[in-house]
Amino acid sequence: MQDGFDAHNPPFDRLSQQEVEELRAALDIGYFRPGETILARGAAAEALHVVIKGSVEARDGGTLNAVLGPKDSFDSRALVHGAAGEDFTAAEETLCFLAPKPVVLGLISRNPAFAAFFYSEISEKLNAFAEAHRAEGMESVLRARVREAKPGPAVFIDAGATVEQAGHRMAESGSNVLYVRDGERVGVVTGMNLSKAAVLRRLPLETPVRDVCHFDVVSVDAEDFVFEALLLMTRNDKRRVAVRRNGEYVGFLEDIDILGLVAGNTQLIPGRIDRARSVEDLAAPARDIQAQVERLHRQGVKVEQIAEVTSDLNRRLFVKLFDLLAPDSIREKGCLMLMGSEGRGEQTVRTDQDNGLVLAEPVPEADLARFREAFSGALDAFGFPPCSGNVMVRNPVWSQPVDGLIRQLRAWVFERTPEAAMNLGIFFDAVAVAGRPELLREAKEALIGMMRGEKALLARFAHLIETFDTPTLGVLNALMVTVGVGSDEIDIKKAGVFPIVHGVRTLAMDRGVAATPTAGRIAALAEAGAFEPGFGQELTGALRVFMAYRLRSQLEAVRRGNVEREAVVQPSRLSAADRDILRDALRIVRRFRDTIRARYNLGAF
């Protein structure tokens, strides 16, 4: 029966073949009757259980946290940390592989990637699994096609042209390598070849280029894998190879192009934005920013780093667009602000526009009307979806003098509706990216002054956290097991991201914390004593889990053209290890929600 043990099931996929054989040799099998307690809360575990058949309920008191099925394992915490955190009970006749504790502990001590599954802190788990994904990402780079590395262009010159003419041709084309056409054959000449001919060999500038080029061209097809091109470069001691398509030379692949495939275009996009002389010139780099998200994700870059890179590039884009479109009246008296996830620096795949304009004083209405429509219209064209709540420069509510904005904020404070609270939350996340930042600072300080210490107002604001439920994986899985219908789907934004973001936002407003990113707010709140530093780390880790799973879902939704499902995660499609991390993250959110409920007495609503 041990032969049926699936070593590809996480976390066992991180074991070497020798370690797998060691584990298989030690496995036993346990049978459990319906209703039998397999492991009681607070008890130590003598084995790691891996479900073969049947199902196991994990309960915390009367709360069903999860229903574990085939290939799920339990309880790693009891095995390593001494006591089970939940009761594990057979929901039906159940068979489990039993991996003895001494064997598992021995594997943990020798294999850090395997050990990561057993860490108690969710942030450590996430970091360890991110390292594994990073390795997978590097492999995906080498398995990319040559065409994906965007080889340089093919520039030709006749073999009878002079060395001097070849140099000028390179300067005009911006290329350091040329194809040399000599009748039926094609050769290659590089800038280094020209330099050596003129300096070391002291050949006249009138020398025909055929005399200094070489015709032993090393080439790959555009559909070949990058690793094949890399092997050719290594074997032939070349920094570049020729690229063919349908038998014709179409460009050159250089080592720097492969590096660019690994690093993406992050270092190139800012220059393209800066060089833009019109709105139309910004369309291509705007597309590149979005393509960069998928490239970085494929390479295993951590989600918070992807968000940081994307936010920085988007802000550069917005600043340039402001410079191109804003008339002097707005440039001198205005402040362009980004809000929501863009303001927090947590945006990855584009979801909607959240931006506005604060003015020191009224400007000519014609100038403002033109700018509103031109700015929002340009972002529409770049692929930034309009905000469903109309939080855009185009909306006069979000582009007005600072005095009017402060009056609007005060009206929202006392309006006490969910919509008003959401608008306040979106604005509280604002950052200034162009123009006069002191205008935004004035409005934010006014809002904090209205809310700070006002428990009733803060409670109304905090109550927005109750807009969406945070489910347990167990309820969804139990429904599927018992009735065989329904969908095991979780909206990761509603269930996980929003409760953390808004709960932290409420505490930050209460404490007057100036930081905008959620992780920065959590760190500042922990330092101020709002909660224990350890819980702050767990909360940050949970947020990153949700962001990582949401990004995966977003990219899949974009590929399928089904963007309304950009935050939907199906637990049944996750690996056992991923479900374990998600379950931990949801547990942390529920604990945080209880903290917010107690602090602001949300039960009174």
Any overview of this molecule?
With about 600 residues, the chain is α+β, with helices and mostly antiparallel strands. It is about 50% helix and about 15% strand. It is built from 24 helices and 21 strands. The protein has a four-stranded antiparallel sheet with strand order 1-8-3-6. Strands 2-7-4-5 form a four-stranded antiparallel sheet. It has a four-stranded mixed sheet with strand order 9-15-14-13. A hairpin with a 2-residue loop joins strand 4 and strand 5. Helix 23 packs across helix 24.
Number of E strands: 21
- Percent of residues in helical segments? 40-55%
Cα-atom Rg, whole angstroms? 30 Å
If you average the pLDDT, what whole number results? 86
Strand content: 15-25%
The N- to C-terminal Cα distance equals: 56 Å
Shape assignment: flat
User: How many helical elements?
Assistant: 24
Q: pLDDT below 50 for ≥5 consecutive residues: which ranges?
A: 475-486
Question: Can you describe this structure in just a few lines?
Answer:
Residues 11-82 form the Cyclic nucleotide-binding domain. With 605 residues, the protein is α+β, with helices and mostly antiparallel strands.
